[in-house]
Design a protein that fits this description.
Length: about 55
């Protein structure tokens, strides 16, 4: 699978617990942090669920 770079661009403060856990599962801990993850269907689904908080690079 291809690697995907994602960056957290919005805060999780005030967001539902599910979204906070999804961001944490993606490996993101703070604003403007960039992580590189495998492009599996599970990861792509997680990115879709929090697409308003992250951006794909």
């Amino acid at each position: 699978m291809a690697k995907i770079r994602i960056k957290q661009v919005r805060s999780v403060i005030g967001r539902p617990e599910r979204q906070k856990r999804t961001i944490k599962a993606l490996g993101l801990r703070k604003m403007n942090q960039v992580v590189e993850v495998e492009g599996t269907p599970q990861i792509l689904g997680m990115i879709a669920k929090v697409s308003h908080l992250v951006v794909e690079l």
